[in-house]
Queue: 4 jobs
Job 1
Amino acid sequence: LVQGITVGGVNTPAAATPRLTLNSGTAQASNFLVGSDGNTGIMTITGSSTELNVSGATSIIGDTAGSNGTVKIQGGAKVTTGALTLGNNASTTGSLNVSGTGSSLTSSGVVIVGRRAHSFMNLTDGATVTTDTGAANETSPSLIIGNRPGLPIVVVDNAALNVNQSLRIGDSTSSATGNGRLIIQNEGVVTVQNELVVGIGNG
């Protein structure tokens, strides 16, 4: 068990782009942080025999201002995680790309795409993402696309997105408007077990 995985954090040399690739076996970690403290980080999990199991509460792709994080799950690799946030603060970018038959991400907590920034989640070519398998009740959001200003985009292209409870597009607070887009194409499938809410509060 690795305490935590950080790719592109506080000790990154200037102008460097740290990359971490997992291409075989099973890895376990308490969480992961990809792209933080003004740095860029890229993590790739690839291959049908590769798994990453994350046991902690929240992992983040694109954390603090000026940071860019990208996570790629491909070639049949499988990732399980707790809650997951893309684009955690203003002026960040978080990207999650899940591609290929058998490739999957399964979260036991809520997934937020664009908490405060532009972010992207792309599902392609037979991949599957399942959100919030541990939701406490049917009104709990399992997937939020756009929680604050920014334009987060989720694309489901010949792939499957399973939302265990509710899906919110354009969530917001009393002081900030959330925007979001969900694009379904090429026989992509989105399944929402309970509510689909488009625009909530000022969203």
Note: Residues 100 and 187 are 15 Å apart (CA to CA).
Job 2
Amino acid sequence: ILERLQTCQSLTQELQSFGTTLGDLSRRIEEMKINYPVFGDSSLAKELSGLQKRYEGVVSHANKTETTLLTFLKKYHQEKFGALQRTVFAHREKLAWCVPDSNSDKYNLEMKMSSLQDVEAGLEDCEEKKVYLLSSLELLENVESPEKLAELHSEKDELISQLDVLKTNFANTKQVLEHNVDLWQKYELMSENVASWLKEIE
């Protein structure tokens, strides 16, 4: 698609030079009509008029084709952006649930650890989607306007920043959860030892 769009843009530029040539011819013919009124009825003037109409038709078709191809690339980029954005949002919500609170018991902590593994797998998925997003933006680099590119880069940077925050929060949450699970295991072991000691004392 990108190659076709670039070819179309290149041909459109060539067409513009033909348009300039046609404009020059048209001016010369008008001058000849003024200087030689009989020339106005010649076949050359009629042929030029037909050629100009064909030229306008080709330019119109080229513009439509270019717009269609560019729209496809923009839509492709928006799909990749939306896919990563939805995934980041979904795992941010899931990660928020995984953060342990002071009332979390062992069962609750284990449930949160299990969900955290889903988030970890989701982060790998995010990295894949990030590669697709960067690739889709690269396709637009030479065919989109500088203003629009600046806007798209800004959106991409913001989303990748959100992903980086998500990864940092994941690492912190994992560390806290593992610490809390470890404390529970130590607590249970201590309880078993105390119970065993009490039995011996009895």
Note: The two ends are 83 Å apart (CA to CA).
Job 3
Amino acid sequence: SAKEVWAVGKDKAAWHFDGTVWTAQDVSPTDGPSLDGAELSSVAVAGGEVWLGATLGNGTGAVLHGKDKAWTVLPTDQGVAALWASADGKTVALAGGQSTNKPFLALVEGGVVKSQDAKLAGGYLTSIGGLSANQIWAAGTGGSLRAFDGKQWSYETIQHLPGTPIDKQFKATETLWGVAVTAGDERAVLAVDKIYRWGQQPQ
């Protein structure tokens, strides 16, 4: 909402906007590692709770979970470049791996980070988005696009819109930097200089 806006960055920097003013936030965990110097890369707000994705200096990562101004840490094997949370906050999906150049996908279930099979031999994932616990998409290097149906991840194919110019068509060698999905099931991924759309298109 307009009163629940966050911005994050290097050295564990986190700012919150309440609709009127920005204020710096102390996201140090109540217990566990201090995460000093961690680079925060992504934010999701759902169910009255806040989730932050982080990459640590040693190539590993973490998810910071904030509730009632208290923060806890969930360690991850690799850095978290992006995360997404369902509206009720019960499903949180993570994507990353840039710090090690190894694809990283995970779900947070019951307060535990559970790694997923990204079905990728190399590269990394840059973004993730979804509509529900069984409709999630992740994108990354090498034109990687994966879809989750609530049980497993699979390859996602982009169907070109009729009349799409050749230079605007999806290329499997491109790095995809963002993925977005609307309630009307219109989906889009962002490449360096263009946006690819697939799924239900607006009339």
Note: The first strand starts at residue 5 and ends at 8.
Job 4
Amino acid sequence: HQPSLVLLIFQPKSTPPCPALSRTQFDGVEKSSDHKVWPKSFCSAGACACSFGTFTNIIDEKTIKDLPSFFYPSLFQQKINKEFEIRIFFIENTFFPMAIFSSLDEQTKLDFRKYNLNKPNRYVPFRLPKSIMQKLRKLMKSLELNSGSIDMIFSDTGKYYFLEVNPVGQFGMVSYPCNYNIEQFIAKHLIEKSKNGKKIQSN
């Protein structure tokens, strides 16, 4: 029910257009074209000392033809041309947003996780519009989450697009480059709750 909830809160301007879940080559051909992307498979792979990750990739006709008849369920959606990405750590109605200027580098243009260690992306503090914060608070309340890492995109047309929220998302990558000291914020919050005798919630 979560995708429907996101659409209800963010429609019509702030959700990625035309998402489609598929696990067969036929569905992939029908729902994809050279202007679509394949963001991720709904699994992660790892073995012993080696680990494997999946990234957002452009889907073209050749890629579709090379797909097996069946594959792990994957999300297809229309490509969004972005100005920058936004990673937000949210805790107890407080936002810690960070802009990631990944579109300036060909290596990270489609997915900032394809890190360029020789020339890292710029990570800077960012201020969210009040309207976006209101929608995100409404979403987190509806999902019964008091913390999480939220991913968004600011497009080249000036629109904000919600991608996902990770209930167990890390905050270090936001805290350190933006000098937010989120660790201190969390520690003070927990101490205050403990003093007031309130039960500390965990997602």
Note: The two ends are 18 Å apart (CA to CA).
